[in-house]
Amino acid sequence: xxxxxxxxxxxxxxxxxxxxxxxxxxxxxxxxxxxxxxxxxxxxxxxxxxxxxxxxxxxxxxxxxxxxxxxxxxxxxxxxxxxxxxxxxxxxxxxxxxxxxxxxxxxxxxxxxxxxxxxxxxxxxxxxxxxxxxxxxxxxxxxxxxxxxxxxxxxxxxxxxxxxxxxxxxxxxxxxxxxxxxxxxxxxxxxxxxxxxxxxxxxxxxxxxxxxxxxxxxxxxxxxxxxxxxxxxxxxxxxxxxxxxxxxxxxxxxxxxxxxxxxxxxxxxxxxxxxxxxxxxxxxxxxxxxxx
Length: 292
Prior knowledge:
This protein is mainly α.
């Protein structure tokens, strides 16, 4: 009798689980519609980049190309000098991101693990920097960079990039570091571990999700930054990809197939970096977000 009752209950449980849930279905439908809306411009860009100029003029932009024209990518690469400007962007991004994260993580470590006067006031002072728009600081920044002789150099954009990236990085890392148990500090101190060694050997490995998430955000922001680069990099040989794309649009604005090809090639490194670190992205942004 008991076995029969449990079998019936099990079947009812399975039936209840398989019942249609309108809320869940509505959420999935909404996500699918949002995905289509977000992906449609990208699909149109891919179609446009693979069409010949004649087909682009007479056909619909929403239809796939009849014949694939990969020559658009070769022409855009050559005419836009994307190799030269892409190298400038890569040097700046691959220097700025690790250096900025290292400085920010050291500051966040000091604010959460070390005891010194006015610690909270210093943290508030750093965070206030995130509230300053870049456009307001462009004029004094240009004067400082010009006086230092760093105009049209990597250092001329790297220093402002690092300075403007530190506030929000310190804010996020401080919350993450604060979520790591204090017992680790005590255990490391008992073993004779110095403060910097604890930071380097213990805290940073545990903070890999947060660092990876910040690396993605910082890389995307640095790669796409336009305002500071426009003011500090006035020599064409020092341009980054956003400046090169603006110039390409001015010279070949009517060649939409080549323009979209150049844009797609310029975002490819960002996609690659995201795919490498994406598994840490959500965990890094949520862990420690409510503690600190």
